[in-house]
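For the sake of clarity, the format in which proteins appear in this thesis is described at this point. The record quoted next illustrates the convention:

___
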Amino acid sequence: MAKSGTIYLVGAGPGDPDLLTLRAARLIEHAELIVHDGLVDRAILAMARPDAELVSVAKSRARHTLPQDDICALLVREALAGRDVVRLKGGDPLVFGRGGEEAEAAHAAGIRVEIVPGISAANGAAAAAQIALTHRDAASVVSFVAGQCKGLAEQDWAGLAGKGRTLVIYMGVKTAPQIAEKLMADGLAPDMPLAVIENACRPDMRVLRGPLAALPDVVEAEAVKSPALIVIGEVTARDTVALAQLAQEVAQ
């Protein structure tokens, strides 16, 4: 019986190849099979060796190349055949990346799994936009939520955002009107500042700012498309660039 391969659940980071971990870069460069998401930048896929097999399992809100159960089955099947499989995911594999489901499927089949963390979309986008997710004067709590979760209207989001808190919403472009309505219904002030960060860590990145009540209008008027994150909280109103420049001037 052939020895099973290893499944590597690898975080590709927020887009820029320079933000890959060394471990991720080495695995990509040596992999014979890479199963990747649609959010993985082409420049990262170009790092694969010429004879590597690249399999896209890209997902969108309306269309999945493969259902999640089929992706898990693909990974298990290839590993049981003796192949090492790099499962490449945008951001971090365990932050809204369904890496936990894939690891469970592999463990159930007796397959060795290694998880290689990546810079999460939230961390990458906030850094690129120079937004401090936590700040001693503005926020000591950060929450991550999925904007496309089922039963959005029935969930209690009270306390996730507000004074001293930062809320980061993944996959919230299509449901921006419902998100704004939900947060205000749960008590968040309509003038709470926010930022929409589109294509973070890429040359065409955009950072759009406004109050919570204007979120649907901003998304529609600016034709925001995924990948995009919504960051809500007082930290988005702080001009960290200007503050950093001021600190340098004072130091001089």
Strands lie at 6-11, 33-36, 53-56, 85-89, 112-116, 139-146, 164-170, 193-198, 206-211, 228-232.
